[in-house]
From TrEMBL:
Key words, A-Z: Calcium
InterPro entries linked: CCR4/nocturin_mRNA_transcr, EF-hand-dom_pair, EF_Hand_1_Ca_BS, EF_hand_dom, Endo/exonu/phosph_ase_sf
PROSITE patterns: EF_HAND_1 (PS00018), EF_HAND_2 (PS50222)
Boundaries of every EF-hand domain copy: 243-278
The keyword Calcium is assigned to this record: yes
GO molecular function, one term: calcium ion binding
Top-rank taxon, per record: Eukaryota
Name of the protein described by the UniProt record: EF-hand domain-containing protein
């Protein structure tokens, strides 16, 4: 949750009272892990988030702040913890990595690339749509959204949940607690990155109502071997939040599967136009199989948003504690086999 409206930040008494209510609520909930987005008073430069763990359950082994100086003015916090007895029921040295971050809000399409860069750098609050490019990128890396896992969309209203009312008064679903278990086969990170960027490229071409032939012809009119001008015309480069020339060159190297320095129509079809890399993931395909070493992972037992109206896509007007809904997830440790990377 964050500090919310401009009024709450300009009115110190309101700001203090509101934060006291938030603290009271957190103490009442007594979650074993708490991830927060904070706002200092008054408009001070400060860390963007706070991660807290109960010392009765976890021992902190290491802590690292990740500064996004090269890809947006944000920060992430990486916490390496170990379960303490008797809660480490399966493994005396059961360890967990916790990442708490707050990505740039996607106010316009120029921020899509920098948001992907932020996730790529750190691999809660992603500040993005449920089916946006960041969501798909994490999905391709075998992360699962805890809330979506706990609420399979058998109920026609289940997909309507929201978690944030932004400064324009719009409501949207942008807050996530992601889980990556050790029994999932994961693609190489660079592979998922290129698929995510090409997916964005394809989306923009299709939004312009281009057919596959027209889109390929659009690229062919760019005499530059790396099609820099094509990327610039789609607003994916040429500005501070866009792709660098080196990143574009690397992407075309991956698209040019035969290595002849040219992108032919077959490669365009396979690597860009028809690449449904995220939507078609089969959960069973990602599970590690065989006689492999056993480790400990987590299952999602329950996930709840508060206030309850947001689970049906509505934001109650009388809710003033935060402009973000509370997301609480209950995990349960389970035995599972280890996995490995796949290309």
């Amino acid at each position: 949750m964050n500090a919310g409206s401009k009024f709450s930040r300009d009115n110190r008494a309101y700001w203090l009272g509101r934060n006291h209510r938030i603290l009271d609520w957190l103490l009442y909930e007594r979650s074993s892990i708490i991830c927060l987005q904070l706002q200092a008073w008054p408009y001070q430069q400060s860390g963007d988030g706070l991660t807290a763990v109960q010392k009765d359950y976890f021992r902190v082994l290491n802590l690292r702040d990740l500064l996004f100086n090269d890809c947006g003015d944000r920060v992430a916090q990486l916490l390496h913890v170990e379960l303490v007895p008797p809660y480490s029921q399966y493994d005396a040295h059961q360890q967990v990595l916790i990442v708490n971050t707050h990505l740039l809000f996607p106010h316009d399409s120029t921020l899509s690339i920098v948001r992907l860069q932020q996730v790529y750098k750190i691999l809660q609050d992603w500040n993005g749509r449920k089916r946006g490019h960041v969501y798909k990128f994490l999905w391709s890396q075998e992360f699962v959204s805890s809330y979506d896992t706990a609420h399979p969309y058998t109920d026609p209203d289940a997909h309507k949940w929201v978690s944030h009312r932004n400064h324009r008064g719009n409501i949207c679903a942008v807050d996530f607690i992601w889980l990556l278990n050790p029994n999932r086969y994961r693609k190489l990170l660079k592979t998922s990155w290129s698929e995510a960027v090409f997916g964005m490229f394809r989306y923009l071409l299709r939004r312009a109502s281009l057919t596959a032939e027209d889109a390929f012809a659009f690229l062919k009119t760019d005499n530059d071997g790396d099609h820099i001008h094509s990327w610039a015309s789609l607003n994916l480069t040429g500005h501070c939040n866009g792709l660098t020339t080196k990143e574009i060159k690397d992407l075309w190297v991956q698209a040019d599967t035969d290595g002849n320095g040219l992108l032919d129509y077959k490669e365009f079809q396979q690597r860009i136009w028809n690449q449904n890399w995220s939507e078609q993931r089969d959960a069973a395909d990602g599970e590690a199989k065989g006689n492999q070493e056993q480790t400990v992972g987590f299952s999602v037992k329950n996930a709840v948003l508060f206030p309850p109206e947001v689970e049906k896509g509505m934001w109650p007007e009388n809710y003033s504690l935060s402009d973000h809904a509370r997301l609480t997830v209950v995990f349960s440790p389970i035995r599972m086999p280890c996995s490995q990377l796949v290309s």
